[in-house]
Write a structure and sequence with these properties.
Oligomer: single chain
CATH class: Mainly Beta
Radius of gyration: 26 Å
Distance between the termini: 29 Å
Number of helices: 4
Shape: globular
Helix content: under 10%
Structural class: mainly beta
Length: 645
């Protein structure tokens, strides 16, 4: 009923707009002509160490709104079980992220909201945005709801809230997923004192079906027997983040004359004293109401339930002092130094048979560590000719003693004919101690004990972008020694030799009259496909016609395609939530085609899409990863409404 009501409302709005185009235009001196809504919303994100702001756009993108979801935003090619809200890993190596230091959080990076993901606002009037998406058929729908509200209490203080909700019933048995994340954020930008605060929750729950029985299974039926007992296995992940960054600045006032000859005084910060406190509390759980001994290679207790969990908590305090760029009028660069203390708690619990005397079956493990790091930054963030940022840090105390991280980025812009060229480059060189859960973990199905050495990683990147032309060329290279991965038995392993990965990517947004062709392609190579398999080529292409109807309704009609070459894609292990190697089935070499209509009317965006319309056209359904098929053709639609008052 609610979907029907929304469709009726939407088409009623279109009819009203169509009728209004035939009404006489109001006189210039009329009241309606004099009243104009002023839209003034600024948005930025911050780094979680210094709290330095990086301006970003408000989500009002008109083009390709149908692709604006967590999975498609994460990467152009992903391994997952096909249901929104389920664990995910990008097939593009350089798109993979590690938002936290907790091993078991990485499959949820595409959906999780951290302090660095939060967008802060400065608004002249309250700003809100509501987004809702759904996918049919009935009883297998996939719903996504997002609500954002931000308002200024006064000239300096802004408060806001965010809620994301995903409910995916899945197209196959025991595939349900549910995600809730959101929280509150606030920012204050006074003359000398400023702060950014975040409280965020990420809560995921998904049934584990282990995939379907065989890659040759007939997928025309929804009632396919899963490899794990129906509705018996569940994974859960929950994260709480508390973040507070504040600074006090010393500086001087400068005069500035306005157009009406009035004089105002601007405060110019010279030195800032910064403190950042961040607390993360994370838990990963796996439950089985009925233990399946056929699916897992090992089961240490088979006549009861499975109840395994891992816990990770980290309290980080960072104290920093910065010399802003304006402290040096000649060279215009900034300096910063910091000291950072980190208190980490890790717990591993298995209550599968807590009443038994066998300590392995009632395992409980706790570990605390204190780490101390120091570092500094040299940066230049102002100016048009060249900007750069170089940071170095080293761990002096704790389990990670000797770890270091050196990274730098540089950007320059210049005019070329009638276009602007952005040329950027960056590098990272670090040595990292493996997460303790790589070395020590116990559960009902997996028990391991390892002694891994530090991973040494060197990465280099470069990008050439033409702003007006819409073409961007990128290059990434990584060489990793002691690379960590999960082997064919879904157990952690370390590759002692050197591993190299190279990738080239192209973004080309082309236009001829009202016909647009947006493309993003990635070509990547791995020096050891047995250790790190990757598809050689992946592409997202979108061909569409874009115009305006009734002079107010922006209309985009098109077709998009996602494709990656075949390779031995990683398999997924439900008990640990990790992706691991397999060499029996190649996945890929299949285009997923979507046809859509995307509409924009003032502050309302709306789309209708038939996703994967080529389902079953080639005789059999494709698989995203071993045993997990791509969802069949689905009818999707959604809307987003922005409010500025």
């Amino acid at each position: 009923m609610k979907k029907t009501a929304i469709l009726i409302l939407f088409f009623s709005i279109i009819c009203c707009v169509s009728a209004q185009t035939h009404l006489p235009a109001p006189q210039e001196n009329s009241v309606s002509a004099q009243k104009k809504t002023t839209i003034d919303v600024r948005s930025w994100q911050i780094d979680d160490r210094y709290g330095i702001a990086d301006t970003c756009g408000v989500d009002t993108v008109i083009t390709s709104f149908q692709d604006n979801n967590p999975v498609d935003n994460y990467s152009i090619a992903n391994s997952w079980n096909g249901n929104l809200g389920s664990p995910l890993q990008s097939k593009i190596f350089f798109d993979r992220t590690e938002k936290t230091d907790f091993l078991f959080s990485r499959p949820y990076d595409a959906y999780a909201v951290t302090a660095q993901d939060v967008r802060f606002f400065d608004t002249k009037s309250p700003y809100a945005n509501l987004t809702w998406r759904t996918a049919l058929p009935k009883y297998h729908e996939e719903d996504y709801f997002r609500a954002l509200l931000s308002m200024n209490v006064n000239k300096y203080l802004n408060v806001g809230g965010l809620v994301n909700f995903i409910s995916g019933k899945g197209q196959y048995l025991s595939q349900n997923s549910r995600m809730v994340n959101g929280g509150f954020f606030a920012s204050y930008g006074g003359k000398r004192y400023a702060f950014n605060a975040v409280f965020m929750i990420n809560d995921f729950r998904n049934f584990e079906n282990g995939g379907i029985d065989s890659l040759n299974y007939d997928l025309k039926s929804y009632e396919i027997t899963p490899r794990l007992p129906e509705q018996q296995a569940v994974s859960g992940y929950r994260n709480y983040t508390y973040f507070y960054n504040h600074r006090y600045s010393l500086g001087f006032d400068t005069e500035r004359t306005l157009a009406n000859d009035s004089v105002v005084y601007d405060f110019v910060p010279v030195t800032s004293f910064i403190h950042t406190i961040k607390f993360e509390d994370t838990k990963k759980r796996y439950f089985e109401n009925a233990v399946d001994t056929n699916f897992y290679a090992n089961t240490y207790c088979s006549n009861k339930f499975t109840k395994d969990s891992t816990k990770y908590s980290a309290l980080t305090n960072t104290f920093a002092i910065t010399l802003e760029e304006k402290f040096n009028r000649l060279l215009h660069f900034g300096l910063a130094a910091f000291v950072e203390h980190e208190l980490i708690y890790r717990g591993n619990f298995s209550d599968t048979l807590y009443s038994y005397a066998d300590s392995l079956r009632s395992y409980s493990y706790k570990n605390y560590e204190n780490n101390l790091r120091v570092g500094g930054t040299l940066s230049k963030n102002e100016g048009k000719t060249i900007r750069y940022n170089f940071t170095g840090e080293v761990a002096l105390i704790g389990r990670v003693i000797g770890d270091f991280n050196i990274r730098g980025n540089i950007l320059t812009s210049f005019r070329l004919l009638k276009d602007t060229v952005n040329l950027s480059a960056g590098a990272v060189f670090n040595s990292v101690t493996p997460d303790l859960f790589y070395e020590k973990y116990h559960s009902n199905h997996f028990n391991w004990g390892n002694n891994f050495v530090k991973t040494v990683n060197l990465r280099v990147k470069a990008r050439l972008a033409l702003q007006k032309t819409g073409i961007s060329l990128g290059f990434n290279f990584a060489t990793i020694r002691n690379y960590l991965y999960f082997d064919e038995n879904a157990l952690p392993a370390q590759y002692g030799k050197q591993l190299q990965i190279m990738a080239f990517d192209l973004t080309a947004n082309l236009k001829l009259w009202k016909i647009h062709w947006d493309n993003k392609a990635v070509y990547q190579l791995s020096s050891s496909r047995e250790i790190l398999p990757l598809p050689d080529f992946a592409v997202y292409t979108n061909l569409y016609f874009k115009t305006k109807i009734f002079k107010v309704l922006t209309t985009q009609i098109g077709m998009s395609c996602r494709y990656s070459t075949a390779y031995y894609a990683p398999a997924y292990m439900p008990a640990t939530g990790q992706f691991y190697l397999q060499n029996s089935e190649k996945i890929g070499n299949y285009p997923q085609l979507n046809a859509y209509i995307n509409l924009h009317l003032k502050r309302l965006r709306f789309y209708v899409q038939y996703a994967h319309w080529n389902s079953n056209v080639f005789g059999s359904e494709p698989f995203i990863m071993p045993n997990y098929p791509l969802n069949r053709g689905t009818f999707q639609f959604g809307l987003s409404w922005a409010f500025y008052n």
